[in-house]
């Protein structure tokens, strides 16, 4: 395995600090891993939300894991463009979310023209990840992390978290 | 900080190094753009976000229920993130905007701008700085703020400055949620009880004179907020119509925070926000 492949493999295994069922690769946050001159690793990550407080931890985790794998020089870069979209969460990531009792995002809205104000009940409600019921209600579009909304299933009565479409 | 640990960043959850929110991002000012004008524009939008984030943070543990407490904290965090990028962008474009600190100070530019400027050097609109009131007050404040900010960021996605364009593109996704949250609560309070409606109308009446500042003309680099007036009015009128609330008949306040003319509320907000950083100008955080 080349140094580039090995570095990419290590980086791909680093998990999201707030949703540890997902790797940074499955979340779509890990954008690129490059090895320069056979020894310096340059990792590019993108924030899910602008204020995501987990970015520093992600950076540290990447640096520590790559150093432990023998790469002494690691640089972590931020990529802002194109902006992260929930569409980048991989199939494996979506399965991991469901496994952990979270609802995976549907397709992100594709808009042209001015963004409409949504005063009524929000976008189509996701099915309950526990019982599969479609009878769910939005509790809040803001949850324990920036990327999640809170729902309640009126079938099994359980609350659940839904990763927002952005 | 105890020197014993200074050499080993693994002791610290976030490491000891400066966390640059623009690490690795190309911050070259594009040809034809005046760096000072770009910096002034980013400061204006960054200060709006920073001061608004601080006011929203003051709601922590005070909202009517846990979900709304979390919602307000989330919106504060989004805006703080936007502020960090915009202040960093301003500093990278024109280092002259960053207050001078003692030589060897480890304070990064975004922190120097946030913590070491006095009120008259802040460029935020006064709507962001006025004291918090009741829940209706924060709903109205967020509605007025996010309607204008979303319209502006939507346009700025096409900015010739690629950093600003990228910040805007991310911000649009975030502020869309803020605007929906505020619009829904506006409607809920308008159609709730007599008391919730009374409070909503009182908050709207009190904050309306600050609204015009959000769409006041700005010359130089960037999208002129004054060109967004019609668009902003359409959205506000939509919310007012659905809620059955009259547009207040209140004239705009004179002066503008964009020129550093602030209310006394900003000085006390900053005193609290800046006190620790100023007490330890050589501190590492």
UniProtKB/TrEMBL annotation, chain B:
Its BP terms in the Gene Ontology are:
phenylacetate catabolic process
List the coiled-coil residues: none
List the protein's name: Phenylacetate-CoA oxygenase subunit PaaC
Which Gene Ontology cellular component annotation is one that this UniProt entry carries? cytosol
Note the superkingdom of the native organism: Bacteria
Q: What are the top taxonomic ranks of the organism?
A: Bacteria, Bacillati, Actinomycetota, Actinomycetes, Streptosporangiales
Q: InterPro entries, alphabetically? A: Aromatic_CoA_ox/epox, Ferritin-like, Ferritin-like_SF, PaaA_PaaC, PaaC
Enumerate the PANTHER family for this protein. Answer: 1,2-PHENYLACETYL-COA EPOXIDASE, SUBUNIT C, PHENYLACETIC ACID DEGRADATION PROTEIN PAA
């Amino acid at each position: 395995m080349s140094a580039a492949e090995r570095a990419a493999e290590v980086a791909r295994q680093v998990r999201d600090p707030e949703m540890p069922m997902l790797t940074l690769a499955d979340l779509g946050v890990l954008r690129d891993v490059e090895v320069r001159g056979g020894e310096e690793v340059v990792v590019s990550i993108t924030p899910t939300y602008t204020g995501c407080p987990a970015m520093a931890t992600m950076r540290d985790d990447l640096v520590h894991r790559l150093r432990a794998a023998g790469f002494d020089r690691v640089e972590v870069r931020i990529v802002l463009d194109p902006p992260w979209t929930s569409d980048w969460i991989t199939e494996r990531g979506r399965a991991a979310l469901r496994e952990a009792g979270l609802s995976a995002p549907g397709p992100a809205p594709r808009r042209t023209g001015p963004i409409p104000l949504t005063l009524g009940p929000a976008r189509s409600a996701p099915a309950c990840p526990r019982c599969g019921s479609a009878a769910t209600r939005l509790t809040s579009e803001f949850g324990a992390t920036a990327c999640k909304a809170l729902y309640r299933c009126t079938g099994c009565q359980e609350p659940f978290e839904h990763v927002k479409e952005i | 900080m105890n020197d014993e640990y200074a050499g080993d960043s693994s002791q610290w959850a976030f490491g000891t190094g400066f966390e640059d929110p623009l690490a690795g991002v190309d911050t070259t000012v594009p040809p034809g753009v005046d760096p000072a004008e770009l910096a002034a524009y980013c400061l204006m939008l960054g200060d709006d976000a920073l001061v608004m984030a601080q006011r929203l943070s003051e709601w922590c543990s005070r909202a009517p229920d846990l979900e709304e407490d979390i919602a307000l904290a989330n919106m504060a965090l989004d805006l703080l993130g936007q502020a960090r990028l915009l202040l960093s962008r301003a500093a990278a474009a024109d280092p002259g905007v960053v207050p001078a600190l003692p030589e060897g100070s480890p304070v990064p530019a975004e922190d120097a701008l946030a913590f070491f400027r006095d009120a008259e050097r802040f460029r935020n609109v006064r709507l962001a700085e006025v004291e918090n009131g009741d829940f209706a007050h924060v709903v109205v404040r967020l509605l007025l703020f996010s309607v204008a900010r979303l319209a502006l960021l939507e346009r700025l996605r096409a900015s010739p400055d690629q950093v600003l364009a990228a910040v805007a593109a991310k911000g649009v996704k975030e502020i869309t949620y803020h605007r929906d949250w505020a619009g829904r609560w506006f409607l809920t309070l308008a159609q709730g009880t007599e008391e919730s409606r009374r409070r909503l109308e009182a908050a709207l009446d009190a904050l309306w004179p600050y609204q015009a500042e959000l769409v006041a003309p700005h010359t130089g680099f960037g999208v002129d907020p004054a060109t967004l007036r019609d668009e902003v009015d359409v959205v506000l009128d939509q919310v007012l119509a659905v809620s059955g609330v009259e547009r207040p008949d209140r004239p705009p306040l004179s002066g503008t925070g964009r020129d550093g003319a602030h209310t006394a509320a900003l000085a006390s907000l900053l005193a609290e926000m800046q006190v620790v950083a100023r007490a330890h100008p050589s501190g590492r955080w």
